[in-house]
């Protein structure tokens, strides 16, 4: 759901539309405006070329035959408009492989299990591959048991959390997954970081009236704005559309630079998101018998060993998909009847914008930021 | 977690402390200040008397032998300081029984199952009894399968959602449960209510250093402030400590009366909480094959037929409770090291304040609002 002033990565529809107009400062190439991460030149690359380039980089990094799946997940992230978590992350991934923090050959393995609950270790291999394997296993457990969960310890950054929600929902499963992170948010009532922004994903399978898979996928971190978003606003000289943290006087502020100075970003829902972030961390660490947020150093290049949960549920074990689709359609239709703040800008369900961006990406090419694209090509050089 | 300006029901420690001072306007009885719901005279009642009085009311309403458990759950709610959801709710419950909306004799029953996933119906019986039975069943499934879930359809208001989190965590299970509600929040980007505030509970079992059960229990609705909280601030002539909704001009405001006029309360995390509320509703309705938010009329007296999810996980199936306690202790200790905004007011984990209030309630008597107590006695007359 969004408003026109929502600075959210998943709602780049406005930006994508303006991609078709060229801008002189961009050397005649398309230029995006309006979205947070679009203060740079944008180009369009076919999905096949994008995936292929990423795959070559990952092959060089030593991921072997698994390079294809890992590249697919990254390319899909840009395809869906989540530019902060696609190729933009590949240079850091490469650097962490080079530093030995990520073992490109390590494969996830089951450590223990009881019924439909399993514990796995990622062995600090590529985080998106471990997460994909963990969700696939949770789905297999749900197929047998109605629901299933995999708690994954000692993994690395999963990149786009929503990937594993789409993975499950497109196969007919409802899913919930989350990861912990290094401490990057002050808990409510404090001024220094002590909880992570611990992204949470909830996905629901669904088909639209034409029978096409059109899942509902929520993918949210527990901070209202990421530091990447704050710096993008600051660079453009803009205020945030809503308060995003505290200034030096301890007041809520829309000034991104003030929040960067205090490092007091705001949790969603104030004390509520602070509590939610904490409990997601503890539950993930306990189920995975892995690291909790407090055990991570503050350097992102050393942020390895995360604990993650992958829970899959099989509603279709109890009800026909037609009935499930009827329930979802009723809720979506009702949502769309809410009076919009701006005429014509109907409230949207989580994932609704993604399908439009995806269609556009496949039709016109995936919109990528030119610096991120160039950085990828350099890794392939 | 809290700050001193947090207007949260679970953090009535300051109010409880001032209960020991008397106030003339209260007829010499104790008077609470500082907490949201304390603009009225408070009295202390022993837990046994409180539970007994509630039980007699429920017996009269026709709950039979189940009156004792239902009364226990309600009395525990006041004991833990959650005054908005304890005896304050009993008159409405009685009215709904009188109107035939709640069937006091209806018992929850299993409708279908597959593996560790079951679907139950509440038959519109007392909502707290159905929820308690559903969580008990989810725990039994988790004991056998590592995890288990019960989706409950056609139930009634569960009163305090946290009850079922404490129920699970004190028995050694991690748990997650949520309910949908009538539409009471505008989705992001809209001005009219189309999502519920769908409370979510996450509970984690834990023991403190002395070996006492001290779970971490988060219990949050998706609205930043309830309408009950807004009216309490308005009646005291106070501004909210943080923005709680939109005024007539569409700006965020701390003025509770303005939000009551627009009925545009704020979801936690703005677009994030709006999306979370929506997906919790759809997932609950689909798993339970029950009502979604859009199917509820706007009259709270007709808010029956909710869909709820009860998920239990058994971390101790894979790890010793000692190791689990070690992980939780590390996270809590780290949280407590964060620099407090106000010296001496350490950030707290979800549930931390509850244990203090509970201890005080059992030692001094449960603090109840005099009007709520009198209303209960009238139902017992």
Features:
Ribosomal Protein S8, Chain: A, domain 1; 2 domains; homodimer; alpha+beta; Hypothetical Oxidoreductase Yiak, Chain: A, domain 1; two-stranded antiparallel sheet
Would you mind describing this structure in some detail?
By secondary structure, chain A is an alpha+beta fold. The first copy, chain A, folds into two domains: 11-105 and 350-381, Orthogonal Bundle (Hypothetical Oxidoreductase Yiak, Chain: A, domain 1), CATH 1.10.1530.10; 107-223 and 267-336, 2-Layer Sandwich (Ribosomal Protein S8, Chain: A, domain 1), CATH 3.30.1370. Chain A has twelve helices and eleven strands. Chain A has helices spanning 13-18, 47-61, 67-79, 90-98, 127-145, 162-170, 227-235, 256-262, 271-288, 321-337, 352-364, 370-379, and strands at 42-45, 109-114, 117-121, 147-155, 174-179, 200-204, 216-220, 245-246, 252-253, 306-313, 366-369. In chain A, the strands form three sheets. In chain A, strands 2-3-4-10-5-6-7 form a seven-stranded mixed beta sheet, with helices on both faces. In chain A, strands 1-11 form a two-stranded antiparallel sheet. Chain A has a two-stranded antiparallel ribbon with strand order 8-9. In chain A, helix 2 crosses helix 3 and helix 5 (127-145) packs parallel to helix 6. Chain A is globular, with a radius of gyration of 20 Å. Chains A and B meet through strand 2, strand 3, strand 4, strand 7 and helix 9 of A and strand 2, strand 3, strand 4, strand 7 and helix 9 of B.
């Amino acid at each position: 759901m969004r408003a026109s002033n929502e600075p959210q990565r998943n709602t780049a529809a406005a930006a994508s539309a303006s991609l078709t107009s060229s801008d002189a400062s961009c050397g005649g190439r398309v230029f995006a405006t309006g979205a947070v991460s679009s203060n740079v030149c944008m180009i369009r690359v076919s999905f096949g070329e994008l995936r292929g380039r990423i795959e070559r980089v990952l092959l060089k990094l030593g991921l072997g035959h698994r390079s294809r799946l890992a590249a697919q997940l990254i390319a899909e992230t840009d395809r869906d408009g989540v530019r902060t978590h696609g190729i933009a992350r590949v240079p850091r991934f490469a650097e962490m492989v080079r530093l030995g923090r990520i073992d490109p050959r390590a494969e996830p393995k089951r450590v223990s299990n009881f019924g439909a609950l399993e514990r796995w270790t990622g062995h600090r291999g590529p985080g998106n591959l471990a997460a994909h394997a963990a969700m696939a296993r949770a789905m297999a457990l749900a197929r047998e048991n109605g629901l299933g969960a995999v708690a994954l310890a000692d993994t690395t950054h999963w990149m786009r959390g929503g990937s594993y929600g789409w993975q499950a929902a497109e196969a007919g499963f409802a899913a919930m997954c989350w990861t912990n992170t290094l401490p990057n948010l002050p808990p409510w009532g404090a001024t220094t970081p002590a909880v992570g922004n611990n992204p949470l994903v909830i996905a629901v399978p669904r088909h639209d009236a034409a029978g096409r898979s059109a899942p509902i996928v929520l993918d949210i971190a527990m901070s209202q704005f990421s530091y990447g978003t704050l710096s993008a606003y600051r660079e453009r000289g803009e205020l945030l559309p809503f308060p995003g943290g505290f200034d030096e006087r301890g007041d809520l502020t829309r000034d991104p630079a003030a929040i960067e100075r205090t490092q007091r970003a705001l949790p969603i829902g104030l004390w509520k998101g602070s509590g939610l972030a904490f409990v997601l961390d503890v539950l993930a660490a306990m189920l995975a018998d892995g690291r909790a947020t407090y055990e991570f150093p503050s350097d992102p290049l050393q942020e390895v060993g995360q604990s993650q949960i992958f829970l899959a549920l099989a509603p279709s074990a109890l009800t026909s998909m037609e009935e499930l689709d009827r329930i979802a359609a009723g809720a979506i239709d009702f949502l769309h009847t809410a009076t919009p703040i701006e005429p014509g800008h109907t409230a949207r369900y989580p994932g609704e914008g993604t399908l439009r961006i995806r269609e556009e990406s496949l039709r016109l090419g995936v919109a990528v930021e030119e610096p991120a694209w160039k950085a990828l090509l350099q890794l392939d050089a």
